[in-house]
Specification:
228 residues; alpha+beta; Umud Fragment, subunit A; 1 helix
Length: 228
C-alpha cells in the first residue's frame, strides 16, 4: 500500500510539472504570436495611456491591413530611435517595458507612438493656422494632450517607401521622430519594426477599458481627427 501511494505521488508531481511546462509554452506562444502585455513608463502618449498603465497589445493588428495615419503602434526602436539614449533629456520617453507580467527582463528598445506619416506623405509643421499639415492639408488633432501645440519644432519631411513618421500625443514632453531630425535615419521607422497596436488597458484596476486609438481619447473618444 505504501509503495502504491509513493508511485501515486510521483505521478502526481510529474503531472504538475508537465502541466506547468505546457502552460509556460502556451503563454510564450500567445505572447510572441497573438497578444502581450506592456508597461507604460512615460507621459508621451497621454491622454490615451498614462504612466504606469499596463496595456494589452495585439500583434496581429496589421496582418490583414496596412498601417494608416492615426494608428498607434508599438515598435522596435533599434536602428531608428535608439540614438535618443545618447542625447540629453528623459531617455525613457516612449519606451515600453515588456515581460513585466511574467517577471522577465524589461526590453527598453520598445516604443509607442502615433503614425502621422506613411510612405509618400509630406508632413509639415506648422501651417499658418498653427496646425500640422499632411500633404498640404491642415489637420486638427483631437487626441493631443490638452494645451499642447502640434509642435514647438518646425519641420517638413517626406516619408520614403517602407517608413513611418511617428509622434507622441503629449507633444510637449514626447521624444519622437522630430527629436532625430538630422540623425542617421532622420527618426523614420521601418514598417517591419512595428510589433502591434495597444487594444486595452488592463492595469491598474480602476483604468481597465478598451482603448479608442482612433481618437486618442479613451474610452469615449471620437473618430480620427480629420487625418487626410
Amino acid at each position: 500500500m505504501t509503495q502504491a501511494k509513493r508511485q501515486s505521488r510521483k505521478l502526481g508531481w510529474r503531472f504538475v510539472v508537465i502541466a506547468v511546462i505546457i502552460v509556460f509554452f502556451f503563454l510564450a506562444l500567445v505572447r510572441n504570436v497573438w497578444m502581450d502585455v506592456y508597461y507604460i513608463p512615460s507621459e508621451s502618449m497621454e491622454p490615451l495611456v498614462l504612466t504606469g498603465d499596463r496595456v494589452l497589445v495585439s500583434r496581429l493588428a496589421f496582418t490583414n491591413k496596412p498601417i494608416e495615419r492615426g494608428d498607434v503602434v508599438l515598435f522596435d526602436g533599434r536602428g531608428s530611435f535608439l540614438p535618443l539614449k545618447s542625447g540629453a533629456g528623459p531617455v525613457a520617453d516612449g519606451i515600453v517595458a515588456t515581460g513585466q507580467w511574467l517577471g522577465l527582463v524589461p526590453n527598453d528598445n520598445i516604443y509607442v507612438k502615433r503614425v502621422l506619416g506613411v510612405a509618400g506623405d509630406t508632413v509639415k509643421c506648422c501651417s499658418s493656422e498653427g496646425l500640422l499639415e499632411i500633404n498640404g492639408v491642415p489637420v486638427t488633432e483631437s487626441y493631443l494632450y490638452p494645451g499642447d501645440e502640434p509642435s514647438a519644432l518646425t519641420f517638413e519631411v517626406t516619408v520614403p517607401e517602407g517608413k513611418l513618421w511617428l509622434m507622441g500625443d503629449h507633444r510637449d514632453v514626447s521624444l519622437d521622430s522630430r527629436s532625430l531630425l538630422g540623425s542617421p535615419g532622420g527618426g523614420l521607422v521601418s514598417t517591419d519594426r512595428v510589433i502591434g497596436t495597444p487594444v486595452a488597458t488592463v492595469w491598474p484596476l480602476g483604468r481597465i477599458h478598451m482603448l479608442d486609438t482612433d481618437s486618442g481619447a479613451s474610452p469615449n473618444g471620437t473618430s480620427k481627427s480629420g487625418l487626410p
